[in-house]
Design a protein that fits this description.
The complex is a heterotrimer of chains A (410), B (260) and C (240). Chain A has 410 residues and is mainly beta. Chain A has a domain at 19-226: 3 Solenoid (Pectate Lyase C-like), CATH 2.160.20.10. The model of chain A has no long low-confidence stretch (mean pLDDT 89). Chain B has 13 helices and no strands. Chain B has helices at 2-13, 16-36, 39-68, 70-77, 83-113, 115-118, 121-148, 152-180, 187-196, 198-209, 213-216, 221-227, 230-257. Chain C is 38% helix and 26% strand. Chain C is built from eight helices and ten strands. Classes of the chains: A mainly beta (410), B mainly alpha (260), C alpha/beta (240). Chains A and B meet through α3 and α4 of A and α3, α8, α9, α10 and α11 of B.
C-alpha cells in the first residue's frame, strides 16, 4: 500500500517534471533496457513490466528513473557489471539484479555509480553479486530498503555489499546485507548516515569503515559476522542504538575501534561476542548507556587509549568486563553497572559505597596464554583475581569505578 | 545390597549434617533466585559453589562417614554378606544422600521460581548432573582414603590435601605449566590436563553452556572442535563416569584385601 | 568342627599369628586366653574372614572358609567394641540385622532376658556402654546358630546382666552349641570354660581342658597357672 502511494506520488511528480514514461516488456515496443535508455530523455521514467531480462554493463548516462513493477529480474549472466550509473539524478526502484561477474582484478558490481550526485537506489534485491552497490566519488544519495547477498564461500570470492569510496552526504537505510565480504564498506566518506540496516553472516566485517569522518551509525544490527564491525582512522563518529551480536572467533569483535577520535558510542547492545569492543589508539571516545551482556571480553583496551569516558554502561555476565594491556590508565570509568560488583550501598542512594575494579588479573593471563581460558572461573583463578583486587600489582592502580551503580542504568 | 544402601541412607537422612547440607543448598537457591532475579548470574554463582563444595563435602563426609561407621562395618563383616556389597552399599548410601541434598536443595527453589519456563533448564540440569558426578567421584575417593588409612587423623589430613590438590593446586600448576610453555603448541596439553581433573572437566562442561563458549574461539580450533561438539560432550561425560568407576573399583579391591 | 592349620599373619613387621594349629571340636565352651597382642582377636577375625591370613588354612566342618562369605550365616559373633550407627534406634538395628540374614530369630525373648524393652525406641548413641553391650548380645544370640564366637563378652556388663549371660552360655552349651570366647576375666573362664587354648606370641602354648592346665602347672587357680606358663616362657627366652 505504502509503495503504491509513493509510486503514485512519484509518478505524478515525474509527470509534473515533464518527463515521459517508457514501458518495457518482452511484448512491448521497447524490449531491452538498452533501447529504452537510447530513446529516453532526461527526466523520463522507464517502467519495466514483470519478467527476466538479460542485462550487463548497461551504462545509464542520463537522469532517468528505472522502476520495476512486480518481479523484474535483470540477469547479468556473470558477464561483469549490470548497471553503471554515470549521470546525476538517477533513480532505481524495485528491481532484482542477479549474477554479477566474479573477477580478481575488477570490482564488478550489480550497481556501479561513479562521480554522480542525487542518486536513489530503493527496494532493489541484489542476488549472487560480487560487489553489490559500488559508489565512487559521489554525493547526496539514498540507498534504502535493498537486499544484497552473494553465493560466495569466503573472503576471496565475495565483494562488499554497499561499498562507498570518497563520498559524502549519503543515506544508507534499512538495507539487509548477508554472505558478503563486508556488509557495508566506507572509505573516505563523510557527513553520511547508516541507519536501521541488518548486516549478518558476512565473511569479514558487518560494517567496515576507514578514514570517514562525521558519520552517524544508528539502529543497525550486526550479527554473526566473521570479524564483527571495524571502525578505523576516523573522527567524529556517532554510533547509537546498534546491536552487535554473536561475533565469535579469535580475531572477532563486536566492534573494533582503531585510531578513532572524538566519537560517541551510545546505547548500543553488545551480546555474546568474543570481544565486545576492542579499542586501540582511540582517544576522547564517549561510551554511554551501552549494554554489554555475556561477552568474552566486554571491552578490551589495547595500545594507547586516552581520555575516554565510560559512564552509565551496563556490564552483565561477561567473562571479563575490561581488559587492559598496559599499566597506564587515562580513561575514566564512572557510574557504570557491573554485575560482578560485590560491594554494598548503605546509604541507599543507588551507588555502591566501595569502588569497583573492573580489570581482573586473569584477563592478562588469558591475553598472554589464550589456552589458559580453560581455567576460567576455577577456584585458583578466583583466588588470584581476589588477591589482585585486594592489592593490585599488575592492573592499573587508578582504574576504578568510584561510583558503581547498584542497579542497571536505564 | 539394597538393605545396606537403605540403612546407610536412613542413618544419614536422620543425621543433622545431611539436613544442614540440604538446607544450605535450599537457602542458596532461594537467595540467589529470589533476591537477585538474574538467572544466568545465579547459575554462574551456583556453578562456582558446586565445583568447589560438592568435592569438599563429598570428601569430608566420605571420610567422616567411613570412620564413624567402621564398627558398624565390622558388625556387617561378621554377617553373611560379601565385602563388596558392604562397601558399595555404604558408598552408594552416602553418595545418594549427598546428591539428594544437592538436587532437592537446589531443585526446589528452581522449580518454584519456574526454571522450566525460563529457558535455562538445560544449563540447570547440566549443573546438577555435574554436581552429582562430583559427589560420587569424591565420595569414592574419600572411601579409598578411609580404607587406606587406619589412622583417622592421617585419613582426614590426606582427604583435605586431596581436595586442596584437585580444587586449587592442580589448577595452579596447570596454569604455571601453560604460562611457562606458551611458546609451544599447548592446546592439546591444556585439553588433556583439563580432562584429567574431574573438577576442571565439570566446570568446563557447565561453562560451555554459560560463558566459556564465546572465549573458546580465542584459544584456537582444538578446544572448539572438542568441547563444541556432541562428541566432546559425550567424551567428557564418559571421562566423568570413569572417574566414578575407577575409584569404586579400587575401593572394592582394597576392601577385599583389607584386614579389620 | 573348626580346624586351623599353620595359620600365619603379620601386620607389617609385627608377627601376630606364627604358624598356629588348633582344633576346636563341636559342642562345649572353648576359651581363648592370652595376654594383649597374643593374637586372640586376630584368630577370631581370621575365622570370621575379617582378617585375611598370610598363609595357612581354616576350615569349618571340613570346608575351607578363606575368602568365602556365605558360611557366616551359621556363626553368631559378638564383636569387642559395640559401636553402632548413631542415628538408628535399638529396634531398627535389630531389624536391620534380622533383615540381613533372613533367618528366624528369637530377638523378643532375648530383649526380655536383658531387660531392653524400654530402650527399643532409643537412639543407639544415647545408650550407656553396658546397655549397648546388651544390645550387642541380643544381636549375637538371636539367630541361634551352631557356632557362637564371643569377643570379650563381659565388658561393661552389670552383675545382673553378667549372670544372665552366664546362664545363657550354659543353656546354649546344653543345647549342644559350640561357643568360642576370648576374655580377660579369669573367674569367668573358670566358671564357663571346658577347654581352653593359651596363646602367646602367635602360637598355642597350651591346649586342652581347664582341668588339664591345673594338672600341668600344679596350680589350683587359673591366674597362677597362666602366670607360671608365662614365667616358663620368659625363662626359655632368656636361655636362648
Amino acid at each position: 500500500m505504502k509503495s503504491i502511494v509513493l509510486f503514485t506520488a512519484l509518478f505524478i511528480l515525474a509527470n509534473f517534471a515533464g518527463g515521459k514514461t517508457i514501458e518495457l516488456c518482452s511484448s512491448c515496443a521497447v524490449k531491452t533496457l538498452k533501447t529504452a535508455l537510447n530513446i529516453a530523455d532526461s527526466g523520463d521514467v522507464i517502467r519495466i513490466k514483470p519478467g527476466v531480462y538479460n542485462a550487463w554493463n548497461i551504462e545509464i548516462d542520463k537522469p532517468v528513473s528505472i522502476i520495476g513493477t512486480g518481479s523484474v529480474v535483470l540477469d547479468g549472466k556473470n558477464q561483469g557489471y549490470i548497471l553503471k550509473i554515470q549521470a546525476n539524478h538517477v533513480r532505481l526502484y524495485g528491481l532484482t539484479l542477479k549474477n554479477v561477474g566474479l573477477s580478481y582484478t575488477k570490482d564488478y558490481a550489480a550497481i556501479y555509480l561513479h562521480r554522480v550526485q542525487h542518486f536513489k537506489i530503493e527496494r532493489c534485491t541484489l542476488r549472487n553479486v560480487f560487489f553489490g552497490i559500488l559508489v565512487e566519488k559521489s554525493a547526496h544519495g539514498i540507498i534504502s530498503g535493498n537486499k544484497v547477498s552473494s553465493l560466495g564461500t569466503g573472503e576471496t570470492d565475495t565483494g562488499n555489499g554497499i561499498h562507498l569510496w570518497h563520498c559524502n552526504n549519503v543515506l544508507i537505510e534499512g538495507n539487509h546485507l548477508s554472505r558478503l565480504r563486508d556488509g557495508i564498506y566506507f572509505e573516505f566518506v563523510s557527513e553520511s548516515r547508516v541507519l536501521e540496516n541488518l548486516s549478518e553472516n558476512n565473511f569479514r566485517y558487518g560494517l567496515h569503515f576507514m578514514f570517514s569522518n562525521n558519520d552517524e551509525y544508528a539502529e543497525n544490527e550486526f550479527r554473526q559476522n566473521g570479524a564483527g564491525v571495524a571502525v578505523m582512522f576516523s573522527k567524529f563518529i556517532h554510533m547509537r542504538n546498534n546491536k552487535f551480536i554473536q561475533n565469535w572467533g579469535s580475531a572477532s569483535y563486536g566492534l573494533l575501534l582503531k585510531e578513532i577520535y572524538d566519537a560517541e558510542i551510545i546505547s548500543n547492545e553488545f551480546r555474546k561476542n568474543t570481544i565486545g569492543i576492542n579499542a586501540e589508539g582511540s582517544n576522547r571516545v564517549h561510551y554511554r548507556l551501552n549494554n554489554f551482556t555475556e561477552n568474552g571480553w566486554a571491552i578490551k583496551i589495547t595500545g594507547a587509549c586516552y581520555e575516554n569516558i565510560f559512564e552509565r554502561n551496563n556490564f552483565s555476565s561477561n567473562a571479563f568486563d575490561v581488559a587492559y594491556n598496559s599499566k597506564m590508565n587515562d580513561n575514566r570509568f564512572h557510574g557504570n553497572y557491573w554485575s560482578d560488583y560485590s560491594g554494598y550501598d548503605l546509604n541507599r542512594d543507588g551507588i555502591g559505597d566501595v569502588p569497583h575494579r573492573p580489570v581482573k588479573l586473569f584477563s592478562y593471563v588469558v591475553n598472554r596464554t589464550p589456552e589458559s581460558v580453560v581455567l576460567l572461573r576455577s577456584l585458583f583463578v578466583d583466588l588470584i583475581n581476589f588477591s589482585e583486587k585486594v592489592s593490585p600489582v599488575f592492573t592499573p592502580d587508578e582504574l576504578v569505578d568510584n561510583a558503581p551503580l547498584m542497579k542497571r542504568a536505564q | 545390597m539394597r538393605r545396606i544402601i537403605w540403612y546407610s541412607l536412613y542413618d544419614l537422612l536422620r543425621s543433622r549434617w545431611t539436613l544442614v547440607y540440604f538446607l544450605f543448598y535450599l537457602a542458596l537457591g532461594f537467595a540467589l533466585l529470589f533476591l537477585n532475579n538474574d538467572v544466568s548470574k545465579a547459575l554462574i554463582t551456583i556453578m562456582n559453589i558446586i565445583v568447589v563444595l560438592t568435592p569438599l563435602i563429598g570428601t569430608l563426609f566420605g571420610v567422616m562417614f567411613f570412620y564413624n561407621s567402621i564398627e558398624f562395618t565390622e558388625l556387617l563383616l561378621a554377617q553373611p554378606i560379601k565385602r563388596q556389597t558392604i562397601f558399595l552399599g555404604q558408598y552408594l548410601g552416602l553418595s545418594l544422600s549427598l546428591s539428594g541434598s544437592l538436587v532437592l536443595g537446589l531443585g526446589l527453589p528452581f522449580l518454584l521460581y519456574g526454571i522450566s519456563s525460563s529457558g535455562s533448564v538445560q544449563e540447570f540440569l547440566l549443573l546438577l548432573t555435574a554436581g552429582v558426578f562430583l559427589t560420587f567421584i569424591f565420595t569414592a575417593l574419600a572411601f579409598n582414603i578411609g580404607l587406606s588409612n587406619t589412622n583417622r587423623i592421617r585419613g582426614f589430613g590426606s582427604a583435605i590435601l586431596m581436595w586442596l590438590f584437585m580444587a586449587v593446586i592442580y589448577d595452579g600448576l596447570f596454569l604455571i605449566a601453560l604460562m611457562v610453555f606458551d611458546e609451544y603448541p599447548i592446546d592439546k596439553f591444556a585439553l588433556i590436563a583439563s580432562c584429567l581433573n574431574p573438577i576442571d572437566l565439570s566446570r568446563i562442561l557447565i561453562l560451555l553452556k554459560l560463558d566459556i563458549s564465546v572465549l573458546l574461539g580465542y584459544t584456537g580450533a582444538v578446544f572448539q572442535q572438542f568441547f563444541g561438539t556432541t562428541r566432546g560432550m559425550f567424551i567428557s561425560l564418559t571421562l566423568l563416569m570413569l572417574w566414578v568407576l575407577i575409584p569404586i573399583w579400587r575401593m572394592i579391591r582394597i576392601a577385599i584385601r583389607k584386614d579389620f | 568342627m573348626i580346624r586351623i592349620e599353620d595359620l600365619k599373619k603379620s601386620f607389617g613387621k609385627n608377627c601376630v599369628l606364627n604358624g598356629l594349629d588348633l582344633e576346636i571340636e563341636k559342642g562345649g565352651v572353648f576359651v581363648i586366653l592370652g595376654p594383649n597382642g597374643s593374637g586372640k582377636t586376630t584368630l577370631i577375625k581370621s575365622i570370621l574372614g575379617m582378617v585375611n591370613p598370610d598363609s595357612g588354612q581354616i576350615s569349618i566342618n571340613n570346608r575351607s572358609v578363606l575368602r568365602q562369605w556365605a558360611y557366616r550365616s551359621d556363626i553368631d559373633y559378638l564383636p569387642q567394641i559395640a559401636n553402632f550407627p548413631a542415628n538408628l534406634s535399638v529396634a531398627e538395628l535389630i531389624r536391620l540385622v534380622e533383615d540381613l540374614r533372613h533367618k528366624p530369630t528369637r530377638s523378643k525373648e532375648l530383649i526380655h532376658l536383658f531387660g531392653l524393652q524400654e530402650y527399643l525406641g532409643s537412639k543407639l548413641h544415647t545408650l550407656s556402654g553396658g546397655t549397648r553391650q546388651k544390645v550387642n548380645l541380643v544381636l549375637t544370640f538371636m539367630f541361634n546358630s551352631e557356632l557362637v564366637i564371643l569377643d570379650e563378652p563381659t565388658s561393661g556388663l552389670d552383675p545382673v546382666a553378667l549372670l544372665r549371660l552366664k546362664e545363657l552360655i550354659r543353656k546354649e552349651r546344653a543345647n549342644g552349641k559350640t561357643i568360642i570366647i576370648t576374655t580377660h576375666i579369669m573367674s569367668f573362664v573358670e566358671e564357663v570354660a571346658e577347654r581352653i587354648v593359651f596363646l602367646l606370641d602367635g602360637t598355642s602354648h597350651y591346649e586342652g581342658s581347664l582341668q588339664g592346665i591345673y594338672e600341668l602347672t600344679g596350680q589350683s587357680n587359673l591366674e597362677e597357672a597362666i602366670a607360671q606358663i608365662l614365667q616358663q616362657q620368659y625363662a626359655q627366652d632368656n636361655l636362648v
